[in-house]
């Protein structure tokens, strides 16, 4: 891997994931125990029984009546705390409201005094691909909120954070479908290394509030029915990142195995020695008949192929069994999982794993699925890769190292006091 890249430190995190995973600590507990937050669609979202039909082909229907949903009510929000009136908050996408809360927690988690953010060149990058709330809030044009444009504009997922915290750096919303937030990570690291900002806030958002988009995915067979100088507490180090595109494939939603493999090689600077020192890969893991074999074949052609007989196989996992497919937020969910695994020097089980797709040749590709909580291989660097791809062909890949690995000495993360 390129040694000239300036390392980027991860100093703080916050999250709201499915079930009770409402903080990095509770999320780690879920990961370690291999729990899944899968459950019935809450009636507060929509009445799933009215939309359900087992066939993918039934137009206007959804082929499942369950999914992954927050335990807390996303409509709850302390508007005055964020200098927002009750009327304005009612017209805001709940994803905007949640990002305000989680961003505040991430800054606190990183020990960043709020007053130091004011007027700073801190950038904001948000990944998102859907906006269910706009469908709900604009169904009756006579009753449409007066602030619908700012309340539902996806650019506001980043811009609202920049406004509230008075951040003067770049403020960008990316949509490359499911790879949105890992693409945002790449753009953020590029901006930091180019000196365009002194700190970057990376976010991803996805809320299922209406069955419309789920119907589309069901019909398309995309749903399965089953900082050292500042004295910051550094949680992990972001190494090389990269993005590319599949180009022309038999169908726009069909992944390109070779394009994904090319991206991995480029991120690792075409260095097999560096590739074989990565112990774990957090896969996109769509759970689809085409997506998983293509992704794992690309991983096998690169990171797997770099392994010698003396090396044990590359461990592979995906967070989607725990919290579902968070769509535009999938990349940042994978990042938080990987940082927690590196901090605890543990590999966690794949929740809900039952059997391997027969098209996936794990032994041949030198890959191993994580089935139990396992200590990080003692003879391997604490380094992991994250892979992500969108259904329109946009791919992203990132390499993450533990702070201990980077500093060459034990570096236990301790939350700021």
Automatic annotation (TrEMBL):
GO annotation, biological process: fatty acid biosynthetic process; secondary metabolite biosynthetic process
Domain Ketosynthase family 3 (KS3): from-to ranges: 5-402
Single GO MF descriptor: oxidoreductase activity
Any Pfam family matching the protein: ketoacyl-synt
InterPro entries: Ketoacyl_synth_AS (IPR018201), Ketoacyl_synth_C (IPR014031), Ketoacyl_synth_N (IPR014030), PKS_assoc (IPR032821), PKS_Beta-ketoAc_synthase_dom (IPR020841), PKS_NRPS_Biosynth_Enz (IPR050091), Thiolase-like (IPR016039)
UniProt-listed SUPFAM superfamilies: Thiolase-like (SSF53901)
Keywords recorded for this protein, A-Z: Oxidoreductase, Phosphopantetheine, Phosphoprotein, Transferase
Membership in a protein family: Belongs to the thiolase-like superfamily. Beta-ketoacyl-ACP synthases family.
Protein name: Ketosynthase family 3 (KS3) domain-containing protein
Organism: Aspergillus nanangensis
Source lineage: Eukaryota, Fungi, Dikarya, Ascomycota, Pezizomycotina
């Amino acid at each position: 891997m390129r040694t000239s890249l300036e390392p980027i430190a991860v100093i703080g995190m916050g999250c709201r994931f499915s079930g009770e995973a409402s903080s990095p600590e509770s999320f780690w507990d879920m990961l370690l125990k291999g729990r899944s937050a899968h459950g019935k669609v809450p009636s507060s979202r929509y009445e799933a029984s009215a939309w359900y039909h087992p066939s993918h082909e039934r137009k206007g229907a959804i082929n499942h009546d369950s999914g992954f949903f927050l335990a807390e009510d996303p409509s709850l929000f302390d508007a005055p705390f964020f200098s927002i009136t009750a009327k304005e908050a009612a017209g805001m996408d709940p994803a905007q409201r949640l990002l305000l809360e989680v961003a505040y927690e991430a800054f606190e988690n990183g020990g960043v005094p709020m007053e130091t953010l004011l007027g700073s060149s801190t950038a904001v990058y948000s990944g998102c691909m859907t906006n269910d709330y706009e469908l709900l809030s604009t169904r009756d044009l006579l009753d449409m909120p007066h602030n619908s444009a700012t309340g539902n504009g996806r650019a506001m997922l980043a811009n609202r954070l920049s406004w509230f915290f008075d951040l003067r750096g770049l403020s960008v919303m990316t949509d490359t479908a499911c790879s949105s937030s890992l693409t945002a990570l790449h753009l953020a690291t590029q901006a930091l290394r180019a000196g365009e900002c002194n700190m970057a806030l990376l976010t991803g958002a996805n809320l299922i509030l209406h069955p419309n988009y789920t119907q589309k995915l069901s019909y398309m067979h995309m749903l399965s029915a089953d900082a050292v100088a500042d004295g910051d507490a550094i949680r992990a180090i972001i190494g090389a990142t990269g993005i590319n595109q599949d180009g022309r494939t038999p169908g726009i939603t069909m992944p390109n195995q070779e394009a994904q493999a090319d991206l991995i090689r480029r991120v690792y600077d075409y260095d097999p020695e560096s590739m074989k020192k990565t112990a774990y890969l957090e896969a996109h893991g769509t759970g689809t008949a085409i997506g998983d074999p293509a992704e794992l074949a690309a991983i096998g052609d690169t990171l797997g192929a770099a392994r010698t007989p003396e090396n044990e196989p590359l461990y592979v996992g995906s967070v989607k069994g725990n919290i579902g497919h968070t769509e535009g937020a999938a990349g940042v969910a994978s990042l938080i999982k990987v940082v927690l695994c590196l901090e605890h020097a543990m590999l966690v089980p794949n929740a809900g794993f039952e059997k391997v797709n027969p098209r996936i040749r794990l032994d041949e590709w030198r890959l191993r699925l994580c089935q139990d909580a396992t200590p990080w291989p003692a003879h391997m660097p604490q380094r992991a890769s994250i892979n992500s791809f969108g259904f329109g062909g946009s791919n992203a890949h990132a390499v993450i190292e533990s702070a201990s690995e980077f500093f060459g000495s034990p570096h236990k993360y301790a939350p700021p006091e």
